[in-house]
Amino acid sequence: MLKTLFKKGNTSRLSFFKFSLIGVSTISVGVLSYSYYKKYQWEQSKTELSQQHFVKYKINWRNFIDKDHFLLEVESIKPQKVNSWKENGYKKLWSVEVKQPQIHVVRNYTPLPLKHVNSNENNEDDFSLKVIQDDASDNGKLMFYIKKYDNGEVARWLSKLPIGHELELRGPYIDYEFPLSPEDEIILDTNFLNSKNRGKEIDDKTKYKQFDINFFTGGTGIVTPLQLVLTQDPFKGKIQIIHACNDYKKGLKPLLPLIDKLENQNRLKLHYFEDFRNELKKGKNLNKIIEKPYSFVGFNQINDSDNDDDKIKPIFSLVVGPDGFIENVCGPKFDLHQGPITGFLGKKGWDNDNVFKLS
Ligand SMILES: Cc1cc2nc3c(=O)[nH]c(=O)nc-3n(C[C@H](O)[C@H](O)[C@H](O)COP(=O)(O)OP(=O)(O)OC[C@H]3O[C@@H](n4cnc5c(N)ncnc54)[C@H](O)[C@@H]3O)c2cc1C
């Protein structure tokens, strides 16, 4: 076509063609630039943790508690506007998905509102865990307590990544929602968790009657109730944890001072069993701890005549841990279906109205 145009010396048609060509190119460049600009804008807007897209975080710190367990502190590359700790508080249990980009898989992990503070720069094991307060500089920090399986993919990969490595996170995913307290109910304080003192420091008097719960936790499942008590606006009733583990003192060492303070404050009672299967068979201690479910009458206003009773009266049990653990405690979970309540809790008179199996 070009050849014909030159041969005929048809300059007006040629310049028209040139003009059209330049026009089309300019429009294409414009459209491309606009779509790149839009994509850039979209990438830039992907700063807030969201279920719709992955957001970049970086690994700040890691500490191996023993050969199978480690703590991993991550921080969002861009500051977060939404404070997920305050947003979810006592109302929701939540987790995030971490992407392993080489094998295109994601795994859920339950974050804790904690950051590490090094006491001695020359000794990386000399650190303590502090609860993240409502401070903008810490907004975007998440702490994970992770178990690495010898033949597992993602946890093993996370255990080896260098400090500063970027991770992609998506969420939060709500794993359980609790009923809301009346709007004018108090917010329980968490400042005492960062203080040096161990004693009962504050008055936890709520305006309304609250309800207590049990958590049966296997292994890293313990992070779930801990999220609920360490978060800003924490759970308002008392929590009883029945924890199955191999070595409690070693496997949870950095978290023990916080658990101790929470127990002192009477917000938490933790019973651990290093041979849980045996305990389930014999039920010597567990039978004394776990009674039938109590009933909850509602968030009624507390009167002066109401007893300030320290006893934990759980109305609900949440069960979290490996499949075998859940099966023994309350019967198997079938994918998204809860399945009937059997196992230990079934025998004790608990049912689907008062037991929930988490993943
Ligand atoms: C809502 C939710 C929250 C979670 N929060 C945490 C958390 O805070 N910390 C944490 O460490 N994990 C947590 N998990 C588990 C986590 O998502 C992964 O399943 C775990 O890290 C194993 O993944 P992997 O890729 O390393 O191993 P995979 O490659 O998936 O598995 C490898 C091997 O390990 C075995 N295996 C995998 N998971 C378990 C298990 N839980 N118990 C026993 N054997 C297992 C498999 O049978 C397999 O043989 C959570 C899971 C869910 C659904």
Automatic annotation (TrEMBL):
Subcellular location: Membrane
Name the UniProt record assigns to this protein: FAD-binding FR-type domain-containing protein
Record key words, sorted: FAD, Flavoprotein, Membrane, Oxidoreductase, Transmembrane, Transmembrane helix
Residue ranges of the TM segments: 16-37
Gene3D superfamilies: Translation factors
Superkingdom as given in the UniProt entry: Eukaryota
Coiled-coil stretches noted in the UniProt entry, renumbered to this chain: none
Domain annotation FAD-binding FR-type: ranges: 52-179
InterPro entries to which the protein is assigned, alphabetical: CBR-like, Cbr1-like_FAD-bd_dom, FAD-bd_FR_type, Riboflavin_synthase-like_b-brl
Annotated Gene Ontology cellular component terms: membrane; mitochondrion
Cofactor(s) needed for function: FAD
